[in-house]
Amino acid sequence: MSGPGGRAAPALLLLLGLPGLLLARPRYEPTWGSLDARPLPAWFDEAKFGIFIHWGVFSVPSFGSEWFWWYWQKEKREPYVKFMEANYPPGFSYEDFGPLFTAEFFDPNQWADILKASGAKYVVLTSKHHEGFTLWGSKYSWNWNAVDVGPKRDLVAELATSVRNRTDLHFGLYHSLFEWFNRLFLEDATNAFKTRKFPTSKSLPELYEIVTKYQPEIIWSDGDGNAPDTYWNSTGFLAWLYNDSPVRDTVVTNDRWGVGSICTHGGFYTCSDRYNPGHLLPHKWENCMTIDRSSWGYRRDARLGDYLAIEDLVKQLAETVSCGGNLLMNIGPTHDGRIAVVFEERLRQVGAWLKVNGEAIYGTKPWRAQNDTVTPGVWYTFSPKEGKVNAIFLNWPGSGTLELGEPRAKLGETQVKLAGYKELLKWVALGEKGMIIALPQLTPQQLPCQWGWTLQLTDVN
């Protein structure tokens, strides 16, 4: 029942009376022109908010950054060299950290419950960072993976199972194309990437392996190693992913598939870490950022001021979604498998905020204005199903009134509601455009939420 390339023969499908939908599935060629024409699965834009998890052997030293190995061995940065000299014996190698990545407190059910409480709709776990250590028992990463060394557990499988059993989150995986110190990669780099030993024997087989084994709905690629997409055969892999993989209908991908592809090719654009343009973009994008201002991995030396406050996170979420983006908020667990209490608190706070204001985030579209022209700290989204304009304001005005310069209100038609508060609010139009809204007089305890509020406006052009 197969035609060329494993496709069911159309004539036979018609004879069997199978739905015409099966015949309509497009085939994507391994070219950027064809791949970039694939529509982004709708769930991703509707989700708006995800959690990134950076976890690996770098969580053992948990000092400075998840780039610890590179900064210590390659760049020989002084703080890293001194840290090793002061705390580890001479001759201690980065590989010696592997058995110390123990994950004895890793409870995937607890992680899933925290992720659910955050209000996120998807999660992306680092299956492998630039250090090359895989969090699953990869056939292509012998003795440098979480099943052979350290936890002796398939961490990817455990988290995937818990997320799918206990939440409605979409499960995704980050994967680094290159590895800093892999000899095959370094040999290819020396040959100006005219040889392709590393991608054919290591990186690409890993990608096929994680897709087939764990069926992630996000492949978050990273780390091109200054090599072009032709070296990585990115278009060949993506054509398989979109045409023949077990997640071909729902999977989304990012834009990090080789030098020159970022912000140009792929499913959604990331453009750069912590990318937040502050204005509407013509292509779906994601702001991947981290609660710890300085690192994606866990840092034992972090101080309270290094972590973004909940007010900062709500602001980032409102700004990002109003400009058409998704927010991917990163946490870094500890080497023993804990989500540090400060990260858990931030995630639960965002979840509490979304319980009240979620209608202004999930499933929304950008409005004709992204932020208000009169009052700073006001960001707009549009709920197409309800036909509402949402004005998320980050500062409660001391005057008790909020002026909005963008909405065109109509007497007898426009209604204004504060999310989480039952009664309609009074307002006055300011000519053809703009309005002043009287906010309810509430004590701090009576406020529907903290750290930002949503006005829901109906019939405001």
From TrEMBL:
Residues 24-359 form the Glycoside hydrolase family 29 N-terminal domain. The gene is FUCA2. SMART domains: Alpha_L_fucos. Keywords: Glycoprotein, Glycosidase, Hydrolase, Signal. It catalyses: a neolactoside IV(2)-alpha-Fuc-nLc4Cer(d18:0) + H2O = a neolactoside nLc4Cer(d18:0) + L-fucose; an alpha-L-fucoside + H2O = L-fucose + an alcohol; a neolactoside IV(2)-alpha-Fuc-nLc4Cer(d18:1(4E)) + H2O = a neolactoside nLc4Cer(d18:1(4E)) + L-fucose. GO terms for biological process: fucose metabolic process; glycoside catabolic process. It comes from Corvus moneduloides (New Caledonian crow). Residues 1-24 form the signal peptide. This is Alpha-L-fucosidase. Pfam families: Alpha_L_fucos (PF01120), Fucosidase_C (PF16757). GO terms for molecular function: alpha-L-fucosidase activity. InterPro entries: FUC_metazoa-typ, Fucosidase_C, GH, Glyco_hydro_29, Glyco_hydro_29_CS, Glyco_hydro_29_N, Glyco_hydro_b. Its EC number is 3.2.1.51. Alpha-L-fucosidase is responsible for hydrolyzing the alpha-1,6-linked fucose joined to the reducing-end N-acetylglucosamine of the carbohydrate moieties of glycoproteins. It comes from the Eukaryota. Homotetramer. GO terms for cellular component: lysosome. The lineage of its organism: Eukaryota, Metazoa, Chordata, Craniata, Vertebrata. Belongs to the glycosyl hydrolase 29 family. Residues 370-458 form the Alpha-L-fucosidase C-terminal domain.
